[in-house]
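Why do we care about 3D structure at all? Because function follows from shape, and shape follows, mostly, from sequence. That is the central idea of this module. The next example makes it concrete: a single protein chain, its amino acid sequence, and then its structure expressed as tokens.
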Amino acid sequence: MKQVYSAEGMRRLRIAWVILAVAFATSAVLVGATHWFLEKERRDAGSSNKRLQEARTRVENIRRERDSLQQSEEVFRTLLARGLMQPERRLDLVELVNGLRAQHQILALDYEISPQRPLQLAGGRAFPAVDILASRVSLRVRALHEGDVLAFIDSLGASRQGFYPVDRCVLRRLEVASPDALLPRVEADCTLEWITMKEKRVA
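And the structure:
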């Protein structure tokens, strides 16, 4: 039987096999390193995207808070302008009502102001910085024409000396003996809430 490989050839082949094994190992290491690097890049990219999204969310929250503060400032300025942050001054209300009576030609006017009380808000809502207070104002107004009565109520509600939302108002016609007599032809029973706000004392 003929010998295909000599001892010298086997030695040379052994070196080639070693070089081939080293090449395979190097390739495996390179493939593994490349895979690890790609996975790291994906993780870093995902982490960067997550941080970017979190930053965008924080910026959006800050914008919303800024807009909310601006709206709250506008509301607060409006409340100040309407006199809601002032304490009740009942003599001022008496003067206001008497002035509006003369302005709108109200022939007869009776009114009663109930004691001030905390205003019960819908859902039991409360504010941490202010107390909402209300006094019920009952009016009985008599005039020649219903337009005078409505103008009187509207002027009271639009006053800058307080906030007076109308709770109820009932108008009815009055019978008069003589059509030419200067007597009331319309009577209105109205109930308003005089609403004010008081800053809470902070300990």
